[in-house]
Amino acid sequence: xxxxDHFLKWINRDPLRYHSLHADMVSARVGMTLEQYLWxxxxxxxxxxxxxxxxxxxxxxxxxxxxxxxxxxxxxxxNIQLPVFFSSLYPADYMQAIIVVVSFIVxxxxxxxxxxxxxSLEKNNRKIKINLxxxxxxxxxxxxxxxxxx
Length: 150
Description:
By secondary structure, the protein is an all-alpha fold. It contains four helices and no strands. It has one domain (2-74, 82-118). Helix content is 76%, strand content 0%. Helix 2 crosses helix 4 (91-146) and helix 3 crosses helix 4. The longest helix is centred in the last third of the chain and has 56 residues, at 91-146.
């Protein structure tokens, strides 16, 4: 709860920052407050980051296995010297840890960015549905008027 309280203080510090998001949420009829939506978005973004980190772990494990067995197909054509970092005891483990951390950060950022744009997409979908059915309402009103309804 301490993290959530700090997060809510951070949101309330700059109310104009999320004004358009709040307007999109109202238009899309999301049914929750801005704070609830942002807190849920942060939790889902962290889960997305964990998923990306797991995918990064398996991808880096596969690539490091390919490099250790010599099946990667990478040849040092220009005879470029590798940094000292790679001459350590387990360079693949270090690279794997770096890839997992970077994957987590990228996944969290992508998840949060997508969730912030989701109410806008819902609003646009709702607008399109209303515009597509608006001509039916106008036709119905015209028929009612011609039929004698006032």
